[in-house]
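Why does residue order matter? Because the sequence determines the fold. Keep that principle in mind as you read this record.
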Amino acid sequence: MFAELLHCITEKGLDHIAESILSYLDAKSLCAAELVCKEWYRVISDGMLWKKLIERMVRTDTLWRGLSERKGWCAYLFKGKHGETPKPNSFFRTLYPKIIGNIELIENNWRCGYHGLHRIQCQSENSKGVYCLQYDETRIVSGLRDNTIKIWDRNTLQCTQVLTGHTGSVLCLQYDDKVIITGSSDSTVRVWDVETGEMMNTLIHHCEAVLHLRFSNGMMVTCSKVSFSYFFKPSPSTIQ
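Structure:
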């Protein structure tokens, strides 16, 4: 009955309704739907339903979201990068099983304890610990108790940059492809150019240590023990 209903919908040219119905399918059901007939395959392809399925998983599952950022395929999701040619449905159809393979590998490594341990000796004369870090495929950015931010090459584990400017321990940080933003026990939030390491801005809105911060989609939120602040971020150097 479902197949007949969907066939009638597509015959009447109501593809948007058919897409909406098929968009609720999981991956196994979507594979089966592609094999029903050429019309269903066309609706799935034209509606970019494999892309929408991946986007749904990224929105609702932290493991998927983390993988999308680490592997870089988040750039092809949602609106994508401005000026970039959109990927076809076949790209996402091929990408999906690769993602599942990555997830199975991660889960198997956790279950079986497969891992390689590499130590970075980042202590300086005055440093007694690392308070925060973020990493991707090429770099590791760490905030230290000695008031510095150190950037390490992910492959060689060698320090490539040391950012100085804070007068207290660096307690939190986040970076993207343009800026590194750090919070410190000196009560300031500082903005750095991710490529050059130049300090671009200093925000003084807290009277105690800045414990945590996050920025996304043009907004940043910071917090201390007794207060929080939010900032609109039109550009890295003009956060206010």
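The chain has a mean pLDDT of 84.
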